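Dig into what follows:
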Amino acid sequence: MSGSSAERRPAGELEASVLAALWAADEALTPGQVQEILGGSLARTTVTTILSRLHEKGTVTRNRSGRGFAYTAAEDASGLTARRMHAELEKDDDRGAVLSRFVSRLNDEDERLLRTLLDTEGGTA
């Protein structure tokens, strides 16, 4: 192996970079276009693999584009964060304990915002 472990990117960094490129785009992007936006430092096959994994997770959608696919983010950054929060909540049988601990760690401003959102959206935020 030629690279040292110090050169490895943190987990999720590549996916985050690819998603950022998709969010900034006005249209669906092919792996080659994503690679170009990211500065060409990643191999096209690496970008294609990342996009395929994101598609399997439901994070991106894809449509045929020539012999390959063009990709679009399934939702914006806030929507993705909300999806991840829901996924974590689904993993625990004691939802009340999870939500209670989450709320107890909110700062005052976030707690007020959450209360406002629950009141205005009828608890279906």
Remarks:
- The helical segments are 13-24, 31-37, 44-57, 77-90, 95-104, 108-120.
- Residues 77-120 form one domain.
